[in-house]
Design brief:
The chain is mainly beta and 157 residues long. Helix content is 13%, strand content 46%. A seven-stranded mixed beta sheet has the order 1-2-3-13-12-8-9, with no helix packed on it. Strands 4, 5, 6, 7, 10 and 11 form a six-stranded antiparallel beta sheet that branches.
């Protein structure tokens, strides 16, 4: 009898434990150049779909990004250039990057690391892809501690 009650309790608690473990898992619906989260229909993920294209991050700033070389397993360098209107390079923002595998969220996350400004006045950060698969780089732009924009680079290694 105790065994049956223990099994019933386990059967009732197991889904709760599994849901708590997977609370950070993201299920997405792809819509054009944005990725809408299934968890919150109001949240939209803005995808920077192609290197060397420009993407507006505010009414007066836009960015472009590129990789120093074609991304592969191992160390890579991501370069992000922020421009003000008139194609003027702007280094007034604080930019951070978090690299992770969406399919293995939490396993290879780097946490948000600040991008450094190099000699060419371009934001740069080393990105280490430890294995092949789907990867995402979350870029957060802020000014004076206030968020300006968050965008994502999706890629397959």
């Amino acid at each position: 009898m105790k065994t049956i009650l223990a099994l019933i309790a386990l059967a009732l608690l197991l889904p709760l434990a599994a849901n708590a473990q997977c609370a950070d898992c993201q299920k997405h619906l792809t819509v054009g150049n944005t990725l809408a989260s299934a968890e919150s229909q109001n949240a939209t993920k803005y995808i920077f779909s192609s290197p060397k294209k420009t993407y507006w991050i505010s009414s007066d700033r836009y960015i472009s990004y590129q990789w120093q070389s074609k991304p592969k397993i191992g160390p890579n360098v991501l370069l992000v250039t922020v421009y003000a209107k008139g194609k003027v390079v702007d280094n007034q923002l604080a930019v951070t990057a978090n690299t992770y595998m969406p399919s293995m969220r939490g396993a290879h996350d780097t946490g948000h690391q600040p991008l450094q400004i190099n000699k060419k006045k371009v934001y740069a950060i080393p990105v280490n892809f430890v294995m092949g698969g789907d990867w995402e780089v979350e870029l957060k732009f802020s000014q004076d501690g206030k968020p300006v924009y968050t965008g994502y680079i999706d890629l397959k290694i």
